[in-house]
Amino acid sequence: QAYGLGRGHVCLFMPQMRAQAVTRRQFQMELRHAFVDGQFALFYQPQIDMVDERVTSAEALIRWHHPVRGLLLPGAFLDALEAGSLAGEVGNWVLDTACAQAAKWRRQQPDFGISVNLSAAQFKQGNLPAVVAAALLRHDLPADALELEITENIILNDQSDILEQLRAIRATGVRLSFDDFGTGFASLNLLSTYPISAIKIDKGFTRLGQASPRDQVVVEGLIAIAAGLGLEVIAEGIEDEATLRFLQQRHCHKGQGYYFGRPCSIDEFARLHLSSPPRQANG
Ligand code: C2E
Ligand code: MG
Ligand code: MG
Ligand code: MG
After folding, report:
1. Alpha-carbon distance 194 to 176, whole Å?
2. What number does the ligand 1 atom closest to the CA of 94 have?
3. pLDDT by residue (tens digit) across 57-74?
């Protein structure tokens, strides 16, 4: 009851807040319907080896084929999804779908790898190591072909046994990367306390070719720290050649960005980025 509290008290339930709550509930129902109806899809963005500029893996990125609003990016629905009860289920679907796709593409390009973003809800389920192992087994995918991306939001808001689950996952050979590194509040000691294999330098550090010397020094420093710790470095958001050359000269290992290709559908990815199948020897 928010009325009649007397002067000095704030009325907590305004009509528009009730309307917002209704809208939120409706959106949650719409999300659930969309998931059951198969409206979610994965797009894939190429990741390249910085030495030979060959596409060696892809990052799976969720999209929503909305019947009215068209193709929606995660920015339009991911927060709502993560706030609701569906996040764990959708996360597991993303993992399974991406593993299935990677297994298919590996028939054409045997060393192909896949990166999948994780959400906090998947750790809260408590059985992520088993879920990951089951997905690998189901699709006959070797553990080192899978990389799971975590963000500092997952680690810093952790109220579960995330470190334990990450150790169990890493012990199976699955790779773990720290996404969006260098923009948030995560401190450098996370790099030595979490069992990660790679850092992804955030796309906030793009346009390095034209960046200020100070920004360039920060990125050089991040690469050096990662190298010293034996971690792989993946740069996101490479949009121009100057940035690519800058990162190549600093021995960044992998890169992704619009310069190499935008996230795209399965068919487009196979057409644009997958190498042709190994040639059969014939007489
Ligand atoms: P992220 O994991 O850091 O993914 C990279 C984002 O940068 C993608 O946005 C991608 O389209 C965009 N990007 C790639 N190259 C460039 C570039 O050269 N320039 C610029 N400006 N942007 C580039 P997208 O697909 O909108 O995804 C946004 C975020 O949503 C992702 O950021 C990730 O945190 C989250 N996300 C996407 N798919 C999933 C998913 O399946 N599960 C979870 N939990 N999160 C996801
Ligand atoms: Mg990512
Ligand atoms: Mg990122
Ligand atoms: Mg991000």
Report:
1. 9
2. 41
3. 999 999 999 999 999 999
